[in-house]
């Protein structure tokens, strides 16, 4: 705001920064996630992502993001209890979801159902009450896998499977997705459960990305966290954000074989299309999450059949990383380049990919929402604009009414 004192005259508005898409504007100070895009570094609360992935469960990482430290044993037990306790949804949520058309996109259902939760928990409006905030955090982290799995079951015309609180967070999600309705128990494959849990850790937060900024933006008006999270999920839905991994799989399927890779690269270089899963606003180096996912792929393929798309993806990466176009623009694979291939091998249909992203990103959204609510420097978000429309003009004088 000090810049506004720089004026050419008293009547002048003062200096204002014009920064479309906020490429060089920090709207907050945050202590949650650190990224050094040039060096390819990602840390949650100071811990390198490479140390957390595979060594800490998603729920431990979720606690870390939200509370700022890794949970001590008693804190973890209480956190697990609270999350497990809130996994069920009100029966009316189920009825609400039943109202969607039979071929509704699961992400559209998730966005709408998150918003609908606001009507079930009116006390969530007490955003300045710390206890109330904490209850909504428990509910949102706990219920998002249930809503996600229900959205999938609805989209394929299968009955909903209620949460099994004897299972871990990630195993329970897989059970709600895939348990046949005629069996009482279903234990998902532990290797796939572990791989998905690691993917959840990698997707849990990424500082001021489009969806998290949306969570902060909507939350800054003191809207409750359910509608704020619904808005964040809507932002995540777009193909340039959480929808990119679906586009990657479609692109690889279209390419079909390794020998067609050079033709695709030519199309990209001529500006006809983008290489999906490549490039990042912040990373101008290899996305560290992509490297971990690439390594996790082999453990998944040892259980499932090898997804032949991985060979096309590897060939594409090799070709792109040795091509001047990509080198000059510092375009590297991002988190979405390999995640879709693994999800597909695990049997997830493509429509559910953005939903798989929304489940863990809920922790990041809530950590940022909580941080914003406690930040005395924050006010309602309200950017300025540079007006480029017409100057003042007037309607024609009204003509005398005909008698
Ligand atoms: N393929 C080909 N060229 C690209 C790509 C790409 N994937 N990404 C960027 N470029 C080029 C642009 O054409 C531009 O070239 P130019 O300078 O000759 O005009 C240059 O690289 C800079 O690109 P910008 O669009 O300015 O970069 P920006 O930071 O705005 O975009 C984004 C980042 C949206 C991620 C972009 O790289 C992209 O569209 N990638 C594909 C979609 C994708 O994978 N999204 C997932 C992001 S990760 C996530 O959300 C979890």
Q: What would you say about this model in short?
A:
By secondary structure, the chain is mostly helical.
Walk me through the structure:
The chain folds into 2 domains: 33-239, Citrate Synthase, domain 1 (Orthogonal Bundle), CATH 1.10.580.10; 244-345, Orthogonal Bundle (Cytochrome p450-Terp, domain 2). Helices cover 51% and strands 2% of the residues. The protein has helices at 49-52, 58-67, 73-85, 91-98, 106-120, 130-155, 169-178, 190-203, 210-219, 225-236, 244-255, 261-269, 288-301, 309-321, 324-328, 336-345, 353-373, and strands at residues 33-36, 41-44, 47-48. A hairpin with a 4-residue loop joins strand 1 (33-36) and strand 2. It binds acetyl coenzyme *A. The site of acetyl coenzyme *A has 17 residues, from loops.
Q: What hetero molecules are bound to the protein chains?
A: acetyl coenzyme *A
What shape does the CA trace take?
Answer: globular
What is the topology, as strand order, of the major beta sheet? Answer: 1-2-3
Unreliable residue stretches:
none
H/E series, N to C? EEEHHHHHHHHHHHHHHHHH
CATH superfamily of the largest domain: Citrate Synthase, domain 1
What is the CATH architecture assignment of the largest domain? Orthogonal Bundle
Query: Whole-number average pLDDT?
Result: 94
CATH topological fold name of the largest domain = Citrate Synthase, domain 1
Category from helices, strands and their pairing: mainly alpha
User: How many H/I helices?
Assistant: 17
Q: How many separate domains make up the residues? A: 2
Question: How far is the N terminus from the C terminus?
Answer: 58 Å
Helix content: 40-55%
Question: What is the C-alpha radius of gyration, as a whole number of Å?
Answer: 23 Å
The CATH class of the largest domain: Mainly Alpha
- What does the largest sheet look like? 3 strands, antiparallel
Please indicate the percent range of residues in DSSP E strands (runs of 2 or more): under 5%
The number of distinct β-strands equals 3
